[in-house]
Amino acid sequence: MKLAILKETAHGETRVAAIPETVKKFAGLGARIAVEQGAGGRADISDEDFAGAGATIGSRTEVLSGADIILCVSGPEPESLAGASSGALLVGALDPFRRREAINGYAGSGLEALAMEWMPRITRAQSMDILSSQSNLAGYKAVIDAAAAYGRAYPMMMTAAGTISPARVFVMGVGVAGLQAIATARRLGAQVSATDVRSATREQIQSLGAKPIFVEGVKGIEGEGQGGYAGETSEEYRRAQAELVSTHLAKQDIVITTALIPGRPAPRLISDSQLASMRPGSVVVDLAAEAGGNVEGTVVGERTKLHGVTVIGAANLARSLPADASALFARNLFNFLSAFWDKEAGRVVLPDDDEIVRGIRVTRGGSIVSERITAA
Ligand code: NAD
User: Which residues does the annotation mark as catalytic?
Assistant: First the structure.
C-alpha cells in the first residue's frame, strides 16, 4: 500500500494529515509513505522529520503516482489530483455539502472519497473523530483569544494597589468545544457559568466547577439527543431561554458561543439588544460563525465592535494551533485506517455493511454513493 500525504492548498489551512509518529506507525503496518515536499512546514514539521520517520519526499505528481490512499486535511481541488489512480481512497475533511462540485470531481476521477467529518458518533469511532479532536482545540483557543482581546485580567488578584475582580465567563453550548472552553477558563481563574439545551450537560458543567444556567419548567432536549447532537427546541423553550439568558448576559464579561445543530443553521442565541446590555469592553467569541453564527452581527473571520463589545467571528480556530491540531488529526486518520487494515492482505478493507464505512463513504466506482448527498 502506498500512502500519499498532500501539502494543503486550501486558503488559510495550516495543518497536515500526518506527523512523523503516524508515518512510523503506517510503516509498521507495511505501508510505503510518500509526503509532498513542504507538507508539514506550517505545523513545524520539516521534510527531514518526515524522511527520518521513513517517508519519501516528492512533488505532488510523484507522491500521487501509484498511491492507494491519499490523506489530506481539507479536501483538495479534484484537478490537483490528476495522476491519482482510479479506486484510490481520498481521506480527510471533504466538506461534502459545501463542496458538491469537488465531490462530483472525485467521483469523476474514480476516487473513493471518505469524509471524516461524517464519522458516526459511536464508542468504537471516538478515536477517529476529527470533529471532536479539532473542536476541543477550538474551545481552548476561543478562551485564549478572548483573553487577548479583553482589557482586563481573568483571575481575581489581590495586590497592594487594590483588588481585581475575576472575569465572568459564560459558555453557551456545552459540547466538546464548550467543555474545553469551561475547563480552560476555570484554569485561568475566571468565574464560569454555562448553558445547553441538552439536560445531560448539567452534570458535566458542574463537574468542571462551573455554574449551570438552565431553563426550568420547559422541556429542552432530554438525555443526549440523536447521536449526541442537539435538535431544534420548541418555540416556548426558545422564549424561556432568551429571557433567562438576557438577565445573565448583562452580567458577563466574556461569552463563548459554540451551539450547533447538525444540518441546520446555528441557533441565534444573542441578539443585538442583548449585546447592547453587556458592559463595554466585554468580549464574545462566536465559534458557530461559519454555520451562520450564534450572535447577531457576527462576521466570519473578523473582529467587530458592536455596542462597545468585541465580537470575534471565529473561523476554524484549530488552524491557529497547527502543530497540535495536525497531531490529533493525523492520529484520527491513523486510528481509522489501522482499524480496517487487513494484515494478511496487507491493505485496507472497507466492508460495505460497516456502520463507519457507511457513514463516511461519499463516492465510489465513479458515483456518489452517500445517501446524505443523493437524498439532499
Ligand atoms: P455540536 O458541536 O453539534 O454542538 C455544540 C453544543 O451546542 C451541543 O452541546 C448542543 O447541545 C448545543 N446546542 C445546540 N443548540 C443549542 C441552543 N439553542 N442553546 C444552547 N446550546 C445549544 O456538539 P458536539 O461538540 O459535537 O458534541 C455533542 C455531543 O456529542 C456531546 O455530548 C459529545 O460528548 C458527544 N460526542 C460523542 C462522540 C462519540 O461517541 N464518538 C464524539 C463526539 C461527540
Answer: 121, 126, 129, 132, 229
- How do strand 112-115 and strand 191-195 relate by DSSP bridges? unpaired
What is d(CA 324, CA 135) in angstroms, rounded to the nearest whole number?
12
pLDDT at 228 over 70: no
Coil, helix or strand at residue 24: helix
Q: Does position 263 have pLDDT exceeding 70, yes or no?
A: yes
Position 250 pLDDT exceeds 60: yes
pLDDT tens digits along 285-321:
999 999 999 999 999 999 999 999 999 999 999 999 9
- Ligand 1 atom, smallest distance to 135 CA: 25
| Residue 361 φ then ψ, to 5° | -75, 120
Q: Is the pTM of this model over 0.90?
A: yes
Give ligand 1 pocket residues (Cβ under 6 A): 121-123, 125-126, 129, 131-132, 135, 172-178, 195-198, 201, 224, 228-230, 233, 258-262, 267, 269
Helix (H, G, I), strand (E, B) or coil at 186: helix
Residues 370, 333: Cα–Cα separation, whole Å: 20
Q: Which residue has the higher pLDDT, 218 or 129?
A: 129
Q: Which of 124, 132, 203 to mutate to test the pocket of ligand 1 (most atoms within 8 A of CB)?
A: 132
pLDDT of res. 374: 87
Contact 144, 376 (CB under 8 A): no
The set of residues, in sequence order, having a beta carbon less than 8 Å from that of 349 and lying 6+ positions away, is 340, 341, 342
- Residue 224: its pLDDT value, please? 58
What is the rounded distance in angstroms from the CA atom of residue 39 to the CA atom of residue 161? 51
Side chain identity at residue 9, one-letter code: T
